[in-house]
Amino acid sequence: MVGTRERPFDINTLSEQRYRVGPFDRVSPSDEPPFHIYLLGHDAVGDMHIQFGPRHEVDRFGLSWKGRIARFYAGERDFRYGFRVEINSCAFEGFEIEEYQTDQEAWAQFRPLVTNPEAYVLKDGIFLLEVM
Known about the structure:
The protein has one helix and eight strands. By secondary structure, the chain is mainly beta. It is globular.
């Protein structure tokens, strides 16, 4: 989760924010990789550096994303290959809840983790930024 009770997520300050996301060295052979892309197959990604760029609309930002790839589908666990993606305007698609959660449970968990929960709607298991 990006937000915490001590430092809630604020969509209004997302521009120019930077995040570093793991795993950093390799994918555990016993675990399903936490992040995936489909490039040559079902690849695992790690050691990611994500920087949000300018905000273009309520729910659209620039994005710079780089990291490392392990060819997970081929049995590789080490992040041997690098990648870099630059997106001028990508949509913020919201936060997905766990399938087992009720709407009431999801709201109770979500509210303290964002600065302005009233800006979101819960639809089909995803907290979406409400565009007015």
